[in-house]
Amino acid sequence: MRRNDGRPIVVLAIVIVVVIVLLWLLARGGALPSPRSDAPVSPSPVAATWYDIYFTAPVFPDRPETRRGGIDERFVQFVDGATHTLDVAVYDFDLDNVARAFARAQARGVSVRMVTDSDTVNNRRDEAIQHALQVVRAGGIPIVPDERSAIMHHKFAVRDAREVWTGSWNMTTGDTYRLNNNAVWMRSPELARVFSTEFDAMFVDRQFGGGRVKRPPVEPVVIEGARVQPMFAPENTVADRVAARIREATTTIHFLAFSFTHDGIGQAVLERRRGGVGVSGVFERTGSETRFSEFGVMKQAGLDVYQDGNPYVMHHKLFVLDGRTTLFGSFNFSDSADRDNDENCLIVDDPQFASRFEDEFQRIRATARAQPPRPATPGREFPR
User: Fold this and answer.
1) Cis (ω within 30 of 0) for the bond into 40?
2) CA-CA distances (angstroms) from residue 237 to 103, 149, 340?
3) Contact 238, 231 (CB under 8 A)
4) 198-208: per-residue pLDDT in tens?
5) Which end of the chain offers a freer environment for a tag, N or C, measured as fewer CB atoms within 10 Å?
6) DSSP code per residue over 241-303
7) Number of domains into which the chain is organized
8) Which of 4-8, 279-283, 289-293 has the lowest mean pLDDT?
9) Does the residue 216 lie in any domain?
10) Domain presence at residue 68
11) Is 128 helix (H, G, I), strand (E, B) or coil?
C-alpha cells in the first residue's frame, strides 16, 4: 500500500490559488497577461490563400551543380501559368530558364512585355545577360529600357491582370543562388491593377523616375483581411512614409538592409529606440563602413545591429514592425531610391505574413552574430 504523501492537499491548494488569480484578473477587466513584446508572432494555423513567400538559401561556395530548387523555378511556374498577359519590370536579368519561359508564353498567345534598365541592356561584357535578352527578343517580346543614368530598379511582374510577383529578387543566377533575397507571389486583381498602372507609365508612356507625371498616393488594398499599401518611388515620397510607419512601432523594429544610407529613416529608428522600442538589424557588410551608412551611427548609439554573414551579399530591404507589419520590395533605404530610381515598396499589415519575414530576419541575424570579427573592407556608396 502506498503511503499518503500529501499530494492531493498540494494540488487542491494550487487550484485554489489559480482560481483566486483568475478572479482578480476578471475584476480588473478580464485581461490576461500579454506575451513578451519581443517574442516572435507565431503563424496562424490556417494557411493564407492570397500569397506565397519565398526566400533564397545561398550556399558557399556557389557551384552549378547545387543550383536547383531556387526562386527562379517558382517564377518559371508563375510565368508558365499565364494565359493572357504578362508584364515584367526587372532591373537585372540573366536567367536562361526564365527567358525561355517568357518565350514559351509569347508563343502560346500570351502578350508578354518587358521593361528593364539601360545598364542591363547595354552590358555587352556579360554573356549571360546578352544571351537571356536575345532569347526574349527572338521570341518577339518587346523590351523597353529606361534610357537614363538613374536606374529602373523594380523587380515585379503582373500576370493576367490578377496576380503580382515582387520583392528584392532580380532574375539572375547570383540573386537566386548567392544573395539573400525575398519574393512574394500575391493573388489580387486590385493589387494587380495598381502595378499595371506603374508598368504602363514606363512601357507605354516612357516615363521614368523624376520625369514621370505625378499621381496621387495609391489607396491601400484589403486582401482577406490584410491591409496592403503599395508605394512607388519617386512619386509617392516613399522614404517619408516608411519613416512614418517606423515611428508608429511600439514594441520591436527588425530590419535587413542591403543599402541603408537614408538619414530620415535612420533617425526614425533611433527615435523609437530612445522611446523604448527594441531595435535589431543586419546590414550588408559592403558599404556599411562608409560615412554614408547608418550602421556606424546605430552601432555607436548602442543598437543591436550587425554586418551580415553571407560571404556573398545580403540583398534584402525590409522591416518587420511589432511582429505584425512588413515593409518590403525593391526600395533600398537611400536617397537615390527615394528621389531618382523607379522603385516599389509594400506595407503589409498582417501578423501571419510578418511571421515569415520575422523567421528570415532571425535566421540571418543568427548567422551574422555567429561570424568571427573580420577586418574592415573598403566600402563604397551603393548607387541604388
Assistant:
1) no
2) 36, 20, 11
3) yes
4) 999 999 999 99
5) N
6) HHHHHHTT-SSEEEEEES-B--HHHHHHHHHHHHTT-EEEEEE-STTTTSTT-SHHHHHHTT-
7) 1
8) 4-8
9) yes
10) yes
11) helix
Residue linked to cell 509617392: 236
Q: Which residue is listed with cell 545580403? A: 314
Grid coordinates 514592425 are at which residue? 321
Torsion of CA 380, 334, 300, 271, to 10 degrees: 180
Rg (the chain; Cα; Å): 24
Q: Is residue 374 very low, low, confident or very high in pLDDT (cuts 50, 70, 90)?
A: low
Q: Pick from 55, 46, 104: which is nearest to 79 by CA?
A: 104
Q: How far apart are CA 207 and CA 342, in angstroms?
A: 10
Q: Is residue 283's pLDDT more than 90?
A: yes
Question: Is residue 9 situated within a structural domain?
Answer: no
Sign of torsion, CA 90 96 101 106?
positive
- Characterize the bridge pairing of strands 51-55 and 143-145: unpaired
In CATH, what number is assigned to the domain containing residue 70? 3.30.870.10
What is the distance, to the nearest Å, from the Cα of residue 231 to the centroid of all Cα atoms in its chain? 13
* Boundaries of domain holding 133: 51-370
Cell of 154: 523594380
Beta pairing, strands 317-321 & 252-257: antiparallel
- Does any domain span residue 380? no
**pLDDT (tens digit per residue) in 117-172:** 999 999 999 999 999 999 999 999 999 999 999 999 999 999 999 999 999 999 99
Q: Give the CA distances from residue 80 to residues 99, 104, 169, in Å, rounded to whole numbers and listed in that order.
A: 11, 8, 19
pTM equals 0.85
